[in-house]
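Table S2 (continued). Query chain:
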Amino acid sequence: METTIPFSGFYNSHHDSNLDYELESMFSDENGNSYQSIVEKASDLADWQAIHTDYAKKYTEALATKFDIRSLKFSKLSSPKFYNFETDRIFCTITQKEVKRIFKLVNKELLENEIKDRFTSRSGFISYYPNTIKEWPKALKDWDINHVGTLIEAYIKQANNGDFESSEQAEIFDGSSEVCNSILDENIKNIGRLYNLADYLRTRKTRKDNQELGIPSN
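Corresponding output:
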């Protein structure tokens, strides 16, 4: 079966901040001040589509582990051409057996509230789904990606004491810095040269500081 998972996307989100912060940290001096010219060059040389896809894969794995969602597998990341009305979405597959298990565990009142919130028509939004589970397909095997995605959302909110905000999503990695560093490291062209340049600037600054302090160079 297909499903979506809770994800706030990469536009002005904590996920975006995770990557930006790590990119600056990779090319910083010993005081944590980034070399902006190198950071900008690295950003220009980065394959951001690959970076975001790798991040989404690792995010899916971490989410499945944290909330014990068995058989959840990453399928693809869908990004809008413009971020006016929607953001990035992660699509996954999950077994029907696991959907049944989660349905048994989820609080049905919470699920109903999630359905009502997602599928009630309002100004600027017309829902093509009923906003009550009573009008949904009776058999879980007949549920589509939006039915299952709503169930997953309700289940995760239940396990996370009521919500799962962008900031909490971004903290799902144990050691988010290491995860983001690895992703960026693999998807920035000529990154070795940029590392060498940053090392040169650090060494030059250290030599200059030593000279000002009267410390002889080795």
